[in-house]
Amino acid sequence: MPARPRGRHAEPLGDELGDLRGIILHVVEETARHAGHLDTTRELLDGRTGLGPR
Description:
Protein name: DUF664 domain-containing protein
Structural class: mainly alpha
Shape: elongated
InterPro entries: DinB/YfiT-like, MST-like
Organism: Streptomyces lienomycini
Pfam families: MST
C-alpha cells in the first residue's frame, strides 16, 4: 500500500492534490486538451485534417 503524503497543502488545494495518481491524470488531461487546441489551430491554418499522407 502506498504511503500517504506527510504534509498538506493549504486550503483550498489540500483536497485537490491528494495522490500522485490524481496529479498524473490531471497532467495527461491537460496535455491532451492543449494538444487538441494546437491540432485545431493547425487545421485552420493549413486546411489539412487528420494525420495526412504517410
